[in-house]
Each structure stands twice: as C-alpha cells, then as structure tokens.
Specification:
Largest sheet: none
Number of helices: 7
Low-confidence stretches: none
Distance between the termini: 82 Å
Radius of gyration: 28 Å
Mean pLDDT: 83
Oligomer: single chain
Strand content: under 5%
Structural class: mainly alpha
Number of strands: 0
Shape: rod-shaped
Helix content: over 70%
C-alpha cells in the first residue's frame, strides 16, 4: 500500500472520501470565520481607542454634533456606534419633549444599538462553535467506516495479516486525525472570540450608562425644525 496522502486517498471508500471532503469544507469555513472575526475585532478595538481620544474634547465642550461626526469617522467601533445612536435619538426629540422623555428615547436607542452591534460582532461564532463540536463526531464516523472497511478487506482476502486491513486502518486514522485537526482550532478560537465579545459587551454597557448620565446634564435642543 502507498502510505502517501494520494495513496491513502485512492484506497479510501467513496463514503470515507465524502467524510474527508466534508471535514475540509468545515476547516475552510472555520478559517474564514477566524480571519473575518479576527480582523473585525482588531478594527473595532483600534477604532474604539481612537474614538475615545478624539471625542473627549467634544464631550467636554458639549458639542453633540461633533460627537456624532467623530463617531461617523469611527463607525466600526462598537462604542462609537452606540454613542452616535444615543446622541442622535436625544437630539431628535421634539422641542416640546421634556429632558426626561428625551433621555428615555436615547436610552431605548442605546438598547437597540447595543443589541444590533452585539449581533453583528457575534456573526459567524455560532457556526464556529458548531464546527468545533461536530467535527470530532464526523471524524469518528469516518473512523467507523475505516474499521468496517478493514474488516471487509480481511474477510474478502481471507487473511488475518496486517496487509488485509491496512487500508481500512489508515482510512480510520486519517479521518480521526482530520476531525480533531478541524475541531481543536475552532474550539480555541471560539473561546478566544467569546472572551473578546464579553469585553466589548462590557465596554458598550459602561458607555451606555455614562452617556445617559452625561445627557442628563444636557438640555434638549430647542431650535426650530
């Protein structure tokens, strides 16, 4: 038997090849999610830091229009996104609306923005968790097929020698190893991104509370519309 990758591939049954192809597709999908979320979280972190530095003066001066402008320049930042929504809701209140009502509108806008931003940041992570949880079982299915193939080869050849079962054993080991190779990075990265998500959620919650407290000191804009 040829113990190279192509040799083992040609010795596999059709179903086992399907298992390998499925695992490779799962690996490609998880790699895409890892790269996409890694870049997204990196941009979100960097823009959040930039937003906090750039918006400080505008907040200190009470220039809410400038706050929104700075947020628009850092729209990939979760903090900037919710701040822009909260300030916009506050400023869009009708002149006849009391400050308390305007703050309540801003709070509702913040809640919606936090939920929307959380969903956007989390996109793809459920698939990563699914791949990490199911890939070992897909590999185990290939293992069962490989062992079955081995016993079938032994029965057909009426042989107990290793040569009679080598192909099936190799098939079983390859699918088992591939299943683990797909699952382990997916689980690691899912846990890593989940930890990052918790930090983003904490930042958004703190920013929401701080913005509500800040808006409580600001009057509703009374200019005619």
């Amino acid at each position: 038997m040829d113990w190279g990758l192509m040799g083992m591939w040609h010795s596999m049954s059709g179903i086992a090849r399907g298992v390998v192809i499925l695992l490779l597709c799962m690996s490609a999908r998880s790699a895409m999610v890892m790269i996409n979320r890694g870049l997204r979280f990196s941009v979100a972190r960097n823009q959040s830091r930039a937003f906090i530095q750039q918006v400080a003066d505008a907040m200190r001066d009470g220039n809410l229009d400038e706050v929104i402008s700075v947020a628009e320049r850092n729209r990939k930042s979760p903090i900037a996104s919710i701040v822009a929504t909260g300030v916009s809701e506050f400023q869009s209140a009708l002149p006849s609306v009391s400050n308390d009502k305007a703050i309540d509108l801003a709070r509702r806008g913040l809640d919606r923005s936090v939920a929307t931003t959380h969903s956007e940041l989390k996109r793809g992570l459920s698939g990563l968790a699914t791949i990490g949880a199911t890939a070992p079982f897909v590999g185990l299915f290939g293992t069962v097929l490989g062992i079955t193939h081995a016993f079938r080869g032994s029965a057909v050849q009426h042989a107990d020698a290793l040569s009679g079962v080598a192909a099936g054993i190799a098939e079983a080991l390859v699918t088992t190893a591939l299943g683990l190779l797909v699952a382990v990075p997916a689980v690691w990265c899912y846990n890593y991104f989940t930890d990052k998500m918790e930090l983003f959620d904490l930042d958004m919650a703190n920013s929401s509370m701080e913005l509500v407290s800040y808006l409580a000191t600001r009057p509703v804009r009374r200019d005619a519309r």
